[in-house]
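Next up, sample data.

:::
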Amino acid sequence: MQALEGPGEGRVLVVAGGGGLRCALVGDALGELGVKHGWAGIVVDGPIRDSQAMAGMAVGVKALGTCPLKSDKAAADQGQAQVTVTVQGVDVRPGDWVYADWDGILISRKQLE
């Protein structure tokens, strides 16, 4: 995911995986890129791998679950940046605010107090 190679500036990357659980869309190598480039979080509409390693990283990660099978790297690099995506029936637009805790994720059009 090329987006994680650019400056995160405290933003959250939302990966629209269509809710499929066949293979992991993000692993520890991408998590490390997120940390290195200043991303605050990664939300994945699909599973991740290397969850134990990712839990100790300084980047928040939310996903539908885990799966040991890697995704096709060529397919992963086909993603688009700065577009509206739908995650679990919720439209997420560029510039939206993402809030997360142990119980879930909230998407807001404006910053909450």
Remarks:
- The CA atoms of residues 27 and 49 lie 5 Å apart.
